[in-house]
Design brief:
- The complex is a heterodimer of chains A (181) and B (324).
- Chain A contains five helices and six strands, in the order H-E-H-E-E-H-H-E-E-H-E.
- Chain A has 181 residues and is α+β, with helices and mostly antiparallel strands.
- Chain A has a domain at 35-68 and 80-163.
- In chain A, strand 4 and strand 5 form a beta hairpin.
- In chain A, helix 3 (118-125) crosses helix 4.
- Chain B is an alpha+beta fold.
- In chain B, helix 3 (37-55) runs antiparallel to helix 4 (59-66).
- The radius of gyration of chain B is 26 Å and the shape is globular.
- In chain B, strand 6 (197-199) and strand 7 form a beta hairpin.
- The longest helix of chain B has 19 residues, at 37-55.
- In chain B, 31% of the residues lie in helices and 16% in strands.
- The chains are: A alpha+beta (181), B alpha+beta (324).
- The interface between A and B is large, with 28 and 43 residues.
- Strand 6 of chain A pairs antiparallel with strand 4 (167-168) of chain B.
């Protein structure tokens, strides 16, 4: 019996140790980007989102005394124009918005992200796009190929509440002159 | 019969024609024909030049135009002269002040382009941004980029259409923009009889608009239909002219020369992205240095399933397509 216990312990110990070891650094670093793909380089500028939002900061403008209701329901009074066409009707506001501080978004593990850092939140589900974006191969980048560039965050192109982009009119086909005129 | 022309029975021109002036002219012509062809051409060119000097007033410019050397033979002073002439011509023809530069290839740089066919929606924004940037003719309309709408589930370029209209993307189509692929084995360069087009060190195939004779062999040789010919002098509103111009790229072209996409070398050789990339609303266009392992195109080549158009022709394009 003692021998078996020793064998079990021998196998179990490294597993426990490795679990602890694996979890520890992420918390120990405590950095905002721990466990996430690399953050953009120094010469990459991401235009801020918060300056473009009419109702930001949400807490100061409305939600200082108005408590957000986490129950899914049709919105009639406020935000009535918002249609969530994302996540196949399983999403509600608090899936992304942090109801403890509505000026921020919350990630799956409880950490928060600002509206300017939406890519951290989006990347939790769309990891492939997040990795490509970090490499500069998803989404529009302008500026200098060998220097400072402007990289758009996810929400610059995609409406987070309805990310599928609408169809729009193509510009007319060119008309090369045909025949003698 | 005697061989001596003096005793020949044939009547002379003087005898045949009654009009004395005409006879004199014919005799003079016969004497001139005996001169060598080179002398004749020199005389004519001189006469034409003299006539131009007398009639137009833009004397030195026209003379410079006719005696313009190949781009590769120009020294710094010649180039300055050429740039001054191009700027003066733009002022004359369109009344605009332009700034012509001549950026040369950057050391250690080879350009490449990658295009994501999964994202392209065929909106043609790139075509029009290109036309604006590169000062191409508006009527007839010259676009360097041609967007093909291809049936989903096929790769049939033969059945594609480039004149689609309306809302995009069509649910049963995908879109493939085609422009100059800046091939490493460019068939157009080999077709040119006067070496007016060549490949530069950074991979860009350029045209010397002053040397091009307008034979359009290169246009026929290009398997990507990437070259365009100026059948007329390009028409473009002065207000729409892009004043930042490159000698080998977007400077205002004369009639009768070929032109093509140059990866916007007046932009890219100073580090900027091409115009078609910056306007793309989907971000499907990627551009960078093929020799830099961290560049965007290299990341794409390493992580995506890329393909090149008409690979079997061995043109080795620098333009990569991919789906993801």
């Amino acid at each position: 019996m003692g021998l078996w216990a020793a064998i079990v312990l021998l196998f179990a110990l490294p597993v426990v140790a490795s679990c602890g070891g694996g979890g520890e650094p992420a918390h120990a670093q405590g950095g905002e980007h721990a466990g996430e793909p690399s953050v953009p380089d120094a010469d990459i500028v991401i235009p801020p989102r918060t300056t473009q939002l009419a109702t930001y900061p949400c807490v100061e403008q409305c939600h200082a005394d108005r408590v957000a209701n986490p129950t899914p329901r049709p919105l009639r009074e406020f935000h009535s124009a918002k249609h969530i066409e994302h996540g196949d009707t399983t999403f509600w506001c608090n899936f992304c918005h942090n109801f403890d501080n509505l000026n921020t978004l919350h990630l799956l593990d409880g950490r928060t992200a600002t509206f300017d850092e939406a890519y951290r939140l989006c990347g939790e589900c769309h990891g492939d796009k997040r990795r490509d974006w970090a490499l500069g191969i998803h989404g529009l980048q302008t500026g200098f190929w060998n220097g400072e560039k402007t990289r758009r965050s996810c929400t610059a192109c995609h409406d987070p509440h309805a990310p599928r982009r609408p169809r729009f009119q193509a510009l007319p086909a060119p008309h090369p002159r045909t025949g003698v005129q | 019969m005697s061989d001596d022309p003096n005793t020949s029975s044939e009547p002379s021109a003087q005898e045949l024609v009654d009009d004395e002036d005409l006879a004199t002219w014919l005799v003079a012509g016969a004497e001139k024909a005996q001169a060598t062809r080179r002398n004749f051409l020199t005389t004519m060119a001189g006469a034409a030049g003299a006539a131009a000097i007398a009639s137009t007033g833009c004397d030195t410019r026209l003379w410079e135009k006719y005696t313009q050397k190949h781009y590769k033979e120009l020294n710094a002073a010649d180039k300055q002269k050429l740039i001054a002439r191009v700027e003066a011509e733009a002022a004359d023809r369109y009344g605009v002040e332009i700034k012509v530069g001549d950026p040369r290839p950057l050391p250690g740089v080879g350009y490449a382009y990658a295009l994501n066919l999964s994202y392209c929606i065929g909106c043609r924004r790139c075509e029009y941004a290109c036309a604006r940037e590169n000062n191409t003719s508006r009527d007839p309309e010259i676009h360097y980029i041609r967007v093909l709408a291809i049936e989903k589930g096929t790769m049939s370029v033969e059945e594609s259409e480039s004149d689609y209209e309306g809302a995009v993307p069509s649910p049963d189509k995908y879109y493939m923009p085609v422009q100059c692929h800046q091939c490493d084995h460019p068939p157009c360069v080999r077709a040119c009889p006067v070496e007016a087009t060549w490949k530069e060190k950074d991979g860009i195939v350029v045209v010397d608009y002053d040397w091009c004779i307008g034979c359009r062999y290169c246009e026929a040789a290009c398997p990507y239909w990437a070259r365009r010919f100026n059948f007329g002098a390009p028409t473009i509103r002065p207000s729409e002219i892009n004043p930042v111009q490159g000698l080998l790229s977007n400077r205002l072209r004369p009639m009768g020369v070929i032109e093509k996409c140059t990866f916007c070398l007046h932009r890219t050789r100073v580090g900027r992205y091409p115009a078609c990339l910056e306007v793309c609303p989907t971000g499907s266009r990627k551009f960078g240095n093929l020799l830099d392992p961290n560049s965007e195109v290299r990341q794409i080549i390493q992580s995506k399933r890329i393909f090149v158009f008409k690979e079997e022709l061995g043109t080795i394009p620098r333009f990569y397509y991919y789906f993801d």
